[in-house]
Amino acid sequence: MSLTVLMNAGPWLSVPPPGYGGIENVIATLVPELRRLGVRVVLASVGESTLPVDELVSVFPDGQFGALQRPYNQVCGIAQAHLAGVVRQLHARDDIDLVHDHVEAVGLATLTAMGPEAPPVLHTLHWDLAKHPALYGNLDGGDRVRVNGVSASQLARAPRALRQHSVGHVHLSSPLAVGAERRSRPEKGAHVVVLGRINPGKGQDLAARLARQVGFPLVLAGPVGPYHRPADLAAAGEAARQNPDVRYFHDEVAPYVDGELVRWVGTVAGHERDDLLATARAALFPLRWEEPGGTAVVEALALGTPVVATTRGCLPELVEHGRTGLLATDEEELGELVLAAGELLDPDECRREAAARFTPAVMAEKYLALYEQVRRLTPSVDLQPA
Questions:
Q1: Nearest-angstrom CA–CA distance, 110 and 119
Q2: C-alpha to C-alpha distance for 95 and 326, rounded to whole angstroms
Q3: What's the number of CA atoms in the CB half-sphere (13 Å) around residue 112?
Q4: What's the helix, strand, coil split of the chain in %, to 5?
Q5: Phi/psi of residue 170, each to 5°?
Q6: CATH code for residues 3-173+359-376
Q7: Do residues 148 and 370 lie in contact, with contact meaning Cβ atoms separated by under 8 Å?
Q8: With the C-alpha atoms ordered 111, 116, 119, 124, is the resulting torsion angle positive or negative?
């Protein structure tokens, strides 16, 4: 069956992104596998996106992520302008069989408002579902708009109206999982890694405090607000503290960062990220929120690094306690579990699990099944082969 999907990535970062970019990385992982399965993909992103697709449509020439630091009333029209471009595309053409939307809140609201004549929509929920109660608590997409989560635990916390539009969940994947069980085992170092954007929900302050208390080397890898390198943050000066993540870093994390036992290295990507993770004793996730998806968890397993984490959100779905990681209900026991992880857990088990469950091919096949399910649930869609 021929299928053309408009993949709405949004206006914030290119696909693939230059460094950190969770949603954009997910799309960059998914699209090649969909095309391998015969899906024609029209990507709605920014003009500088380089992901091979069948067609690229854009409103902005480059990513607008930096604008998010400006006041809301100066920024609120950016996503709407992008969505207006998507709507123009959908009105002007009749070859789009389904829209796969990834734009938080405004994507769902705009595509729902288009009414029954628009194509079926699958809106993927990548974030905390408590963020938009007015939208999610009153959603009425009829038979045309459906949503999926990135974990079962995420959907379990969704408002009733949102759950009624759900067609299930698809766990995130990583290209690192391909052939992971055949990858040679690098020599492990003593360091522990926390990989991800630095903010209170990720709990980097807890990780840094435990590292100092227990005595393990810790590397914090991820951006602070819009600042991807320590030099960039230092150059921004006091004005940067307007950003809540910057304030959190300065007030709660930086006092523990000594450049020796606890280091912040900024954003890492590519081989640098892979080497940092693959040689780590453990990947630590001291979460203080209900993590919905866990891309970094999957990456750690694919690189043969056990996960140590609090039992929050999707972690119990991704990590088998005692085999691929150690999960704690008490924050204070995380430090001791970090020391135990290198002795108790086999990196090869982590790689085998990733290769079986978290490859891009597995994710794409599950999404293709959801596309067909969404189209079957839309009464006006003709599912006869093209």
A1: 13
A2: 48
A3: 20
A4: 45, 15, 40
A5: -135, 120
A6: 3.40.50.2000
A7: yes
A8: positive
**Do residues 173 and 27 touch, judged by C-beta distance below 8 A?**
no
Task: Give the residue among 185, 220, 152 at the shortest CA–CA distance from 350.
Answer: 185
- Contact 49/76 with Cβ under 8 angstroms? no
Which letter does DSSP use for residue 186 in this model?
P
Cβ contacts of 127 within 8 Å, gap of 6 or more? 104, 292
For domain 176-357, the CATH class is: alpha beta
Which residue matches tokens 């940092």? 276
CA angle 186, 192, 197 (to 5 degrees): 110
Within a 10 A sphere around the Cβ of 263, how many other Cβ atoms?
A: 18
Q: Which residues are registered as beta bridge partners of 41?
A: 5
Q: Tell me which amino acid residue 331 is.
A: E
- E strands, the chain, where? 3-8, 39-45, 55-58, 98-101, 121-124, 145-149, 166-169, 192-195, 218-221, 262-266, 282-285, 307-310, 325-328
Closest CA to 284 of 181, 209, 359: 209
52/42 Cα distance (integer angstroms): 10
Task: Report which DSSP code applies to 46.
Answer: -
Q: Structure tokens of 157? A: 């916390």
pLDDT band at 386 (very low <50, low <70, confident <90, very high): very low
pLDDT-derived band at 21, boundaries 50, 70, 90: low
Segments of the chain assigned to CATH 3.40.50.2000: 3-173+359-376, 176-357
Joined tokens for residue 172: 């995130």
Q: What are phi and psi of 221, to 5 degrees?
A: -125, 115
Q: Report the amino acid identity of residue 97.
A: D
- pLDDT, tens only, 354-383: 999 999 999 999 999 999 999 999 987 766
Which run of H or of E encompasses 344? helix 334-344
- Predicted model pTM: 0.90
68/245 Cα distance (integer angstroms): 13
